[in-house]
Amino acid sequence: METIQHTNLKKTITDSLSKSTSYQEYRDRVRQLALDKATTGEAQTDALINYTMLNDRRMKRWDKTVKVPEAFKEKISNFNEEVTWLVLTESWCGDAAHLMPVMNKLSALNDKIDFRVVLRDENEALMNQFLTNGGKSIPKLIMLDNATGKVIDTFGPRPTAATKLVDDYKAEYGKLTPEFKEDLQQWYNKDKGQSAIEDLVVLMES
Predict the structure, then answer these.
(1) 17, 67, 193, 194: least buried by Cβ within 10 Å?
(2) φ/ψ of residue 91, rounded to 5
């Protein structure tokens, strides 16, 4: 049974990789969607379109401003395995807008890391293999060994520190309120991608 499941997962990953784009292609697409007042996915609601427009501005800012500390740059540069970072996302996802530029910045430091992007709703079979507490939470980064095709580890949908904030709030209040979601965006702005950088470097060292 385990062999069959592994074979099916490998095929699912291969199928999604064949549809993947580079980060730059994804950014170009989101930029065009924002100009066209549209969004990824079938649901073209005003809310999702507005999130896409907001996220395009967020990613543009983070693409320019995310800084990787020298100590982490050295660790990433010394990473010596050929891997693919396959990320499930959508243009309307607020967490993804803060985290994708960080992932891209790190992957650009080492040519052994191939950063590829797919849309969640166009890759349901893949998403269903990497649920978070039963939900299709994104972004979800899947770290793959290029030599074997095996999954090394995953990251997302949020850095460890942000996940704790969310879990603690849910435990106390039962659900996430619009006010909390605004507070979470402020947390991302203050954190400047550093928590995600730390988490991803730990994954690469494990």
Answers:
(1) 67
(2) -65, -25
